[in-house]
């Protein structure tokens, strides 16, 4: 059952993307390269901290409660590796174009550049939506230590991460000659996969609860893949990569504070 708290929780990350995409109405044609690096670093820091504190640690704690003892790491490792492998497969099978790149990845396609840029962000956002869905699904299981506060902490943390991501997708689209309204719309649509992914996991939660440790770590693995494969290389491109490192540290600390203080 999707109650008010659940609907609100899974919607928060999408709101973050929408607000970020709206920056296209207030900022100049392009994001300053240093600001872009800082935002990318911040995003990766938030995602990494969320993967550890909100997903991997709860997955291992839950496995311990279920009597796995010293082998409580097995579901976490299994889910993490499956998440990484699935995103690797998506990267190979879905045509997409990353920020500041001229050559698309995946199979050859006649899709427009704009569409492939949106697909690249959508691939990033799907595991985030699944992560939020998995945590809210955990609320339905009395055997977990997942609380409403910790679930909302993850949603807020990902929303903070999505704010710069929304701007990073809408601003380059405008610089390509697309109108402000369409750039905003495309930036917003790139985040729509998150609530759908979250709701799908929640609706299937009655069947997935026995697999919750695997599901939590799967979402962590998918997010870690995005961090290592896509965000960090983009943030480290060219000079002044130390700005991205500082952004990573700030993002990691912000998400860690949110999870520990609210959870």
UniProtKB/TrEMBL annotation:
UniProt keyword list: Cell membrane, Membrane, Transmembrane, Transmembrane helix, Zinc
Domain of life from the UniProt record: Bacteria
Localization of this protein: Cell membrane
The keyword Transmembrane helix is assigned to this record: yes
Cellular component per GO, a single term: plasma membrane
TM stretches of this protein: 6-26, 38-60, 72-94, 184-205, 211-228, 240-262
UniProt xrefs under InterPro entries: ZIP
GO molecular function: zinc ion transmembrane transporter activity
Protein topology in the membrane: Multi-pass membrane protein
Family indicated by similarity: Belongs to the ZIP transporter (TC 2.A.5) family.
Family matches, as PANTHER family: ZINC TRANSPORTER ZIP11, ZINC/IRON TRANSPORTER
Name of this protein: Zinc transporter
Species name: Faecalimonas umbilicata
